[in-house]
Structures are given as C-alpha cells and as structure tokens.
Design brief:
Order of helices and strands: EHEHEHEHHEHEHEEEEEEHHHH
CATH architecture: Alpha-Beta Barrel
Bound molecules: S-adenosylmethionine, iron/sulfur cluster
CATH superfamily: Aldolase class I
Strand content: 15-25%
Protein name: GTP 3',8-cyclase
Distance between the termini: 24 Å
Number of helices: 11
GO molecular function: 4 iron, 4 sulfur cluster binding; cyclic pyranopterin monophosphate synthase activity; GTP 3',8'-cyclase activity; GTP binding; metal ion binding; S-adenosyl-L-methionine binding
EC number: 4.1.99.22
Radius of gyration: 19 Å
Largest sheet: 12 strands, mixed
Keywords: 4Fe-4S, GTP-binding, Iron, Iron-sulfur, Lyase, Metal-binding, Molybdenum cofactor biosynthesis, Nucleotide-binding, S-adenosyl-L-methionine
Helix content: 25-40%
GO biological process, one term: Mo-molybdopterin cofactor biosynthetic process
C-alpha cells in the first residue's frame, strides 16, 4: 500500500469516460460557456477502453479497490457497460459505482446490470420542474430522471440520489426531496455547492451548509446519526427514526475532509489529478501510449501519489486564500 505525504493511502479511483453531457447544469457546465462552439475532446484524445483497463489495473496494484465511473455524462460514452464488465474482471477491484444524471437509465439500466454493475449514484436537484428545468439548462423534466430511478430500482440496483443545494435556487426543494425519497426508501445525499472549476461563479453566499440543511430537516423529521462504514467515507450519514431510509451530507465546504481523502482521479483524456481542485494534471495518456512497460507506469503513478500534499478544502476552511485563486479544472472534465 502506498501513502502520500500526509499518510493517506490510495484506495479509490474516479474515472471520467467523457467530457460531454446532455445537461448544462448552471453550477457545472453553464450553457453560456459550454455552448455550440465549445471544443470538446476529440475521440483520439480520449482514453480508449483498453487504456482505461490497463491504467485501472496498474492503480489496483497500487492499492485501489474501488472505482467510480463518471463524466460528463458517462452514459453518453458508447458501450460503457462493456467497459464496466471488463473493469470488474481486474484482480483487486472489489467495487464499481457509476454517477449519472439518470436521463439515459431507462435505456441502459439492464445492460449495466448485466455487465455486473450494482451501484448507481443518480443526480437530481429538484422535483419541481420550474426549478429543475432551469437548473439542468436543457429543459429536461424531473419525471425523466424519476423514471430512470424507477427503472434502475426495478432492475435491482442499489441507489443513492445526489442533490446539489444552491441558496435561492433549489433550497425550497430540500424538504420535498427528503419526503419523496424517504417514502421510496432511497438514500438522498445533500451536496454543498462547491467552488470547483472557474466557470460557475461560486461564492460563499450560495452555499447552504450541512448545519442549515440539518436544521430545516429536523423541523420535519427525527434523524439519528449512522456510523461510517469505512475509513474515508465521505458522506455524513443519518437515518430517519421511522424508516430504514438514510440521508447523507457531503460537506466539502463547511466541514472539509481532506485528512481522509484517498481518491485519485483520471480525466477523460488521461490526466491524473490528485485533488478535485488541482490546477494541473499529470499526463498519463502519453505515458500509456509511449511506454509498453507497466512497471514504468506503475512507478510514475506511485511517485505522483507519494508526493501528494493536496488539502484544498481544508485550506479553504482555514481561509488560506492564496491557494484558492488558482486556475482549477472544470467539474465536467474530471467528474466530481
Ligand atoms: N453527469 C453525471 C451527474 O451529474 O451525475 C456525472 C458527473 S457530475 C460532474 C458528478 C456530480 O458532481 C453530480 O452529482 C453533480 O451534481 C456534482 N457537481 C457538479 N458540479 C458541482 C458543484 N459545483 N458543486 C457540487 N457538486 C457538483
Ligand atoms: Fe452534466 Fe453532471 Fe455536470 Fe450536470 S453535473 S452538467 S449532468 S456533468
Ligand atoms: Fe481530497 Fe482535494 Fe477534496 Fe481535499 S479538496 S477532500 S484533498 S479532493
């Protein structure tokens, strides 16, 4: 097992399989910036399935046990189910999850399940269509995502729904969403709006903190804390007293968790990022394409991890603004 400079092991790898998306969420890929002229990656710039499989295999030798497939919208990458089937064969990989906006789930849930995938995180920011259609920037109704959720549940998937909360945008949806998914027995996780990338116009005033959300929920529900399942579990979890359903909070802004961050990330074009807020990635694609020797790739990845010192969110909480002004990669490029 390798550890970074802050003694954090490498456990998880998030792989972005495309930078394209069928939504234009204002907080992630605002339509004004990601418009018709935006230059997305070309096919030859994106890692092939063989390259992804190879690099995931090397990461697993270095201690990675969990993979997450993300994007952009990962279900827009052709044959992603086949890729998942292949990744599940890698020795040492115990678990794969996929994060999706849910729009294409009715079409692909069964293929994904047949490939061996069992866990899905589905993003849905509102039930109310005036709010949701504006937020997703493509006028897609919440019913489409809800149908995707239903299809996935019917297929047999274990599901978590993720809701990014933005003040004045969808905070009125906190209670309706909690009520809806409590009744369905599905875990809902509230994600604090983060200052990822440079294009979503983030500021502190738009963040609804875990504390605020918890206070709102407490007026309607009785919640009991649930212990973390494993070291580095990101969500702070609670259970409803009268139901088995859980809620969770991803508190990247108000209560950062860098000290237990065991995640590596690879962008669709094969850059290795040691932090969601990193300004620069390490080019694994050239390495993979120019070097047949897995040992060399292994050594370089190990080196990068062993020199890792990132703790961006902790620094934000501490008010160390110098590190906060740098150029950051966009969320749609790295996949969250
Ligand atoms: N397209 C897929 C989806 O939306 O689920 C996968 C990629 S998306 C970048 C992964 C997750 O990041 C989504 O749950 C999304 O809501 C979240 N996200 C994107 N931008 C964010 C931001 N600025 N703050 C917090 N979460 C964000
Ligand atoms: Fe697309 Fe997901 Fe970003 Fe929304 S959050 S624009 S669905 S990548
Ligand atoms: Fe990990 Fe970087 Fe997020 Fe901290 S800010 S938890 S180091 S990804």
């Amino acid at each position: 097992m390798i550890k970074d400079k802050l003694q954090r092991p490498l456990h998880d790898l998030r792989i972005s399989v495309t930078d394209k998306c069928n939504f234009r969420c204002q907080y992630c890929m605002p339509a004004e910036i990601f418009g018709p002229d935006f230059k997305f990656l070309n096919k030859n710039e994106i890692l092939s399935f063989e390259e992804i499989e190879r690099v995931a295999g090397i990461f697993s030798e270095l201690g990675v046990k969990k993979l997450r497939i993300t994007g952009g919208e990962p279900l827009m990458r052709k044959d992603v189910a086949k890729l998942i089937g292949r990744l599940l064969q890698i020795k040492g990989i115990e678990d794969i999850g996929l994060t999706t906006n849910g729009v294409l789930l009715v079409k692909y849930a069964q293929d994904l399940y047949n490939a061996g995938l069992r866990r899905l995180n589905i993003s849905l920011d509102a039930l109310n269509n005036d709010i949701f259609q504006k937020m997703n920037g493509r006028g897609v109704k919440s019913e489409i995502v809800l149908k995707g959720i239903e299809a996935a549940l019917k297929t047999g998937f274990s599901i978590k729904v993720n809701m990014v909360v933005q003040k004045g945008v969808n905070d009125t949806e906190i209670i309706p969403m909690a009520e809806h998914f409590r009744k369905m027995g599905v875990t809902l996780r509230f994600i604090e709006f983060m200052d990822v990338g440079n294009s979503n116009g983030w500021n502190w005033d738009q963040v609804v903190s875990k504390k605020d959300i918890f206070e709102m929920l407490s007026k309607h529900f009785t919640l009991e804390p649930v212990d973390p399942d494993y070291f580095g579990e990101v969500a702070k979890r609670y259970k409803y007293k009268d139901s088995e359903a859980e809620i969770g909070f991803i508190t990247s802004v108000s209560e950062s968790f860098c000290s237990t961050c065991t995640r590596a990330r690879i962008s669709a074009d094969g850059k290795f990022y040691t932090c969601l807020f990193a300004g620069k990635g390490h080019d694994l694609r050239s390495l993979l394409r120019n070097c047949d020797d897995d040992k060399q790739v292994h050594t370089q990845i190990a080196d990068i991890w062993q020199n890792r010192k990132d703790r961006y969110s902790d620094e934000r909480v501490e008010g160390a603004t110098t590190s906060l002004n740098k150029n950051k990669i966009e969320m749609s490029y790295i996949g969250g």
